[in-house]
């Protein structure tokens, strides 16, 4: 319960943290099942909070999807976010509004956006 006070955690995260502290797997499963039954833990709520946090940080859909999958979340909805506009906004904030004509500068900006987790479609659209 103490782990959930600070922020939402997925079932996988809770299981890993409790296992690292030496709790028995049966006790972990029972505790997590009780938390879910009391609606104190929810993977859907965790996914929504996590997605919003990463979008606010300027991360792209590819990175967010990979991080959620790593945390044991298989079903999530990214459709309400406009990653085309976010990629454009992040590029303009970092490099300015002008689209570079130099190939090296374009490549540098594209690598930056790719490292932020944007897809190639989002990256290419940010240069239009």
Q: Could you explain how this protein is built, in words?
A:
- The mean pLDDT is 93.
- Among the domains are: 1-41, Arc Repressor Mutant, subunit A (Orthogonal Bundle), CATH 1.10.10; 83-125, Arc Repressor Mutant, subunit A (Orthogonal Bundle).
- The chain is elongated.
- Helices cover 66% and strands 0% of the residues.
- By secondary structure, the chain is mainly alpha-helical.
- The termini are far apart.
Please name the CATH architecture of one domain.
Orthogonal Bundle
- Gap between N and C termini: 48 Å
Strand runs, count: 0
The CATH topology of one domain comes to Arc Repressor Mutant, subunit A
Number of helices: 8
Helix content range of the residues, please?
A: 55-70%
CATH top level assignment of one domain: Mainly Alpha
Strand content: under 5%
Given as residue ranges, the uncertain stretches (5+ residues, pLDDT < 50) are none
Write the layout of secondary structure elements.
Blueprint: H1 2-6, H2 11-20, H3 25-37, H4 43-56, H5 61-70, H6 83-95, H7 103-115, H8 120-125
Helix pairs in contact: 2-3
Structure at a glance:
The protein is mainly α and 128 residues long.
Offer a few descriptive terms.
128 residues; mainly alpha; Arc Repressor Mutant, subunit A; 8 helices; 66% helix; 0% strand; elongated
């Amino acid at each position: 319960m103490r782990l959930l006070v600070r922020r939402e955690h997925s079932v996988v995260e809770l299981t890993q943290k409790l296992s690292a502290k030496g709790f028995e797997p049966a006790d972990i499963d029972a505790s997590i099942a009780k938390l879910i039954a009391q609606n104190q833990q929810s993977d859907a709520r965790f996914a929504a909070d996590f997605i919003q946090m990463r979008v606010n940080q300027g991360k792209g859909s590819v990175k967010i999807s990979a991080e959620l999958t790593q945390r044991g979340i298989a079903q999530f909805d990214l459709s309400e976010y406009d990653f085309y506009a976010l990629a454009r906004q992040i590029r303009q904030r970092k490099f300015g509004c002008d689209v570079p004509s130099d190939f090296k500068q374009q490549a540098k900006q594209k690598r930056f956006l790719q490292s932020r987790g944007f897809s190639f479609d989002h990256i290419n659209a940010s240069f239009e």
